[in-house]
């Protein structure tokens, strides 16, 4: 039975992803409005209160210089302490709110991207390297978080501080205010010039980071091969070259970043110099008190941060936008094998391929041509063909990994895409040619799907002749496998994958070269167990070894993507040259025959 809650959840995720793609920032504000607006309100209070101490200190200076009673001075100082305490409370509060808001958004975005990955077809993974997909979920999500969290916060902080500080400066001395802040309009001009450069450089930096992740991930995954060919140096050089490119781009981004803060600070320093130059005569003339001059100077100092902050905030924002562009590219990718079927595949009646043609996306050299094939309940169908003939391609299509564009692929007389994918997975189990094991216990690797019955683990490991070997391991079924099952043999991996397929007890089981790493005797035992237990199960067994096809009454012989012949062993000996060659080769291994 399909799991409605999971499919509903996925549909919801995809629906949300659409509105996220349109306005990412607004999307997350709407999702967590309480935290967002409470954060802003607390920030506003913090900034408002924070603009008062310079004024109060100026008062204290004037109170002392003008000989006011000490009780008044203490009153002002007491107020100053209360304000400082309130500032700390509000600052704590906005940090908490804002942290929850931005981390919450990042987590949600990660989940959405991951859900998208899981729901995209094979074609997507064919054109997107794992390293790129990993860096998207880590790096790019983080820089999006920095943009909508600290980035927006810094910009608001700058806005709030300026809108509190500038009016207070005007109250103290309008003429000094405009003279010292005359450099302000230069800031947006400089920013608009540089923001485009930052956006482009940062996108380049993230792209190169993906290349680097892909390269390191591939090298580590293939470390056995690299070592056995003594190619460590070559791969080290390859990695170093990519790493150098990344370093150069990072330097370029750092140079642009570094340009901002000093530019802003220079503006403020010029303002301070103008202040001291202009304020002297006003103090001497008595139009400006010493306390007011002190407050004014403090406010100029306070304006350093907002001016610098605009630069930093805009940089965060640009980086976040570049990352979001990359994320949206994935979120808006259409699945070429969408799960849009409505029918439940309840039981297996027939599987038919009619005039099926297929080319891998973007590859012109290979294609399946005019494949006709039928499978009935209880039948065992063999597919034989030399390496590269197209055997796995046929099974990938039956498993629904690629879309069928020409010809038809029918289950129970209906196109495969009419069925819900979850119900198809229950009906057809596909054991791929490449065994993939997770870094988990043997037990969990065998069970894999929650739909499998736990009580069947031992029974199926017995069927694939693995139970005895596992019992000899110190931790038995709890033995934890290394990455990709590195601590067990190739044949054991293959048999574990086979047990994983058998345990689902689905009406159709496809075994793609599932015996290639297993010795002839063990293979014979497994096949006889399979024969005994299969009952009404239909099997498609793929191999280039005749021994593996013993159970098959009917065998399809593939050659260069086309069916050369179909028939029983005896019929194929009469009408299939490929089958004849394989037969001669495998019955009499000394005969020099090649396919
Ligand atoms: N993901 C892919 N993208 C592009 N071309 C592919 C892809 N997978 C396979 N091919 C090409 O399609 C052809 C058929 O491959 P397929 O894996 O179906 O062969 P096979 O009969 O299963 O071979 P083998 O016995 O070696 O497993 C090959 O020429 C191969 O290069
Ligand atoms: Mg294959």
Write a concise keyword list for the protein shown above.
single chain; 595 residues; alpha/beta; ABC transporter transmembrane region fold; Rossmann fold; 2 domains; 6-stranded mixed beta sheet; 4-stranded antiparallel beta sheet; 21 helices; 10 strands; disordered N terminus; binds adenosine-5'-triphosphate; binds magnesium ion
What is the CATH homologous superfamily assignment of the largest domain? ABC transporter type 1, transmembrane domain
Quickly name the level 1 CATH class of the largest domain: Mainly Alpha
Chain-averaged pLDDT = 84
Specify the helix fraction band: 55-70%
- End-to-end Cα distance: 45 Å
Strand portion, in percent?
A: 5-15%
Per DSSP, the total helix count is 21
The quaternary organization reads as: single chain
What does this structure look like?
By secondary structure, the chain is α/β, with parallel strands linked by helices. It folds into 2 domains: 4-331, ABC transporter transmembrane region fold; 351-587, Rossmann fold, CATH 3.40.50.300. Helices cover 64% and strands 10% of the residues. The protein is built from 21 helices and 10 strands. The chain has helices at residues 4-22, 24-31, 33-50, 53-65, 70-118, 122-127, 130-172, 174-180, 186-221, 223-228, 232-285, 290-331, 391-398, 421-427, 442-447, 457-463, 467-471, 490-502, 520-533, 569-575, 577-587; strands spanning 351-359, 367-375, 380-385, 406-411, 414-415, 428-431, 508-512, 538-543, 554-559, 562-567. It has a 6-stranded mixed beta sheet, with helices on both faces. It has a 4-stranded antiparallel beta sheet with strand order 2-1-4-5, with helices on one face. A hairpin with a 7-residue loop joins strand 1 (351-359) and strand 2. Helix 3 (33-50) runs antiparallel to helix 5 (70-118). The longest helix is centred in the middle third of the chain and has 54 residues, at 232-285. Residues 1-6 and 589-595 have low confidence and may be disordered. The site of magnesium ion has 5 residues, from helix 13. Magnesium ion is lined by residues 391-392, 433, 512-513.
């Amino acid at each position: 039975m399909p799991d409605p809650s999971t499919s509903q959840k996925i549909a919801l995720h995809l629906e949300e992803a659409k509105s996220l793609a349109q306005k990412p920032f607004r999307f997350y504000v709407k999702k967590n409005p309480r935290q967002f607006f409470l954060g802003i309100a607390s920030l506003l209070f913090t900034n408002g209160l924070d603009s008062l101490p310079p004024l109060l200190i100026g008062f204290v200076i004037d109170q002392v210089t003008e000989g006011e009673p000490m009780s008044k001075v203490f009153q002002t100082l007491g107020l100053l302490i209360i304000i400082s305490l309130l500032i700390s409370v509000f600052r704590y509060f906005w940090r908490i709110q804002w942290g929850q808001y931005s981390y919450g958004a990042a987590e949600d975005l990660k989940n959405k991207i991951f859900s998208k990955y899981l729901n995209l077809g094979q074609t997507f993974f064919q054109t997107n390297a794992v390293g790129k997909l990993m860096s998207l979920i880590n790096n790019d999500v983080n820089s999006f978080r920095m943009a909508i969290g600290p980035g927006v916060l810094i910009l608001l902080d700058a806005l709030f501080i300026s809108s509190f500080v500038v009016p207070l400066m005007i109250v103290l001395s309008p003429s000094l205010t405009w003279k010292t802040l005359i450099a302000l309009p230069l800031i947006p001009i400089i920013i608009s010039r540089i923001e485009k450069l930052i956006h482009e450089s940062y996108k380049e930096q993230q792209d190169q980071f993906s290349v680097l992740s892909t390269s390191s991930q591939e090298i580590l995954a293939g470390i056995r091969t690299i070592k056995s060919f003594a190619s460590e140096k070559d791969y080290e050089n390859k990695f170093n070259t990519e790493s150098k490119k990344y370093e150069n781009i990072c330097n370029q981004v750092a140079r642009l970043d570094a340009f901002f803060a000093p530019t802003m600070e220079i503006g403020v320093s010029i303002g301070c110099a103008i202040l001291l130059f202009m304020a002297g005569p006003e103090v001497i003339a008595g139009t400006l008190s010493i306390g007011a001059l002190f407050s004014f100077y403090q406010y100029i100092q306070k304006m350093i941060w907002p001016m610098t902050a605009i630069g930093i905030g805009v940089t965060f924002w640009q980086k976040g936008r570049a990352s979001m562009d990359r994320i949206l590219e994935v979120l808006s990718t259409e699945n070429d094998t969408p799960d849009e079927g409505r029918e439940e595949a309840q039981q297996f009646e027939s599987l038919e391929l009619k005039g099926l043609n297929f080319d891998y996306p973007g590859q012109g050299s290979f294609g399946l041509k005019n494949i006709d094939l039928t499978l009935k309940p209880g039948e065992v169908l063999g597919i034989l063909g030399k390496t590269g003939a197209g055997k796995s391609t046929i099974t990938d299509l039956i498993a629904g990994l690629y879309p069928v564009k020409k010809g038809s692929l029918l289950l129970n007389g209906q196109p495969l895409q009419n069925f819900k994918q979850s119900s198809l997975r229950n009906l057809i189990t596909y054991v791929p040619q490449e065994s993939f094991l997770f870094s988990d216990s043997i037990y969990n690797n065998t069970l894999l799907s929650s739909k499998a019955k736990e009580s069947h683990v031992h029974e199926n490991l017995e069927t694939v002749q693995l139970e005895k070997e596992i019992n000899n391991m110190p931790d038995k079924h709890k033995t934890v496998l290394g990455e990709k099952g590195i601590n067990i043999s190739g044949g054991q991996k293959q048999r574990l994958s086979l047990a994983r397929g058998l345990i689902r007890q689905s009406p159709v089981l496809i075994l793609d070269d599932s015996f290639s790493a297993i010795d002839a005797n063990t293979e014979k035992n497994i096949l006889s167990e399979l024969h005994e237990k299969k009952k009404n199960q239909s099997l498609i067994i793929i191999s280039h070894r005749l021994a593996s096809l013993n159970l098959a009454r009917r065998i399809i012989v593939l050659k260069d993507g086309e069916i050369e012949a179909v028939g029983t062993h005896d019929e194929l000996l009469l009408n299939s040259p490929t089958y004849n060659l394989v037969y001669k080769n495998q019955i009499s291994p000394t005969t020099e025959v090649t396919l």
